[in-house]
């Protein structure tokens, strides 16, 4: 059984990543930029939430791996996706291998270098896993809206 564990605020280069600089559209409960189909509720633009799924000892799937998968889809490269996240190629490759071995079918297909320079793409399973994760983020955000707003309203600093 999967354990859903909310985690802290995402940092980019040691700084909080503003919504406009994350490169994501709304509905990522990770950083909680909400996707267009789940627009940011009024007064919630500065609130972030991260969703991490723990599948026992087999896999932890969270915002970082989801962002890596999206980066691979967008760039066609594990190295470029890792660089965009300030991650070494070795770390990006390690995360891809971890995901590929955890599922029945690989999430990322990679092609060796050569004249064409190699590349990588998401498999059908990779696209499916990423879509389910992103939808779940939106569902969690929407379901928790009232509670999040209530907590926000109790903050001493009301500028959030």
From TrEMBL:
Domain of life: Bacteria
UniProt-listed InterPro entries: LysR_HTH_N, Molybdate_resp_trans_reg, WH-like_DNA-bd_sf, WH_DNA-bd_sf
Annotated HTH lysR-type domain residues: 70-127
Pfam families (alphabetical): HTH_1
Transmembrane parts of this sequence: none
Protein name in the entry: Molybdate transport system regulatory protein
Lineage: Bacteria, Pseudomonadati, Pseudomonadota, Alphaproteobacteria, Rhodobacterales
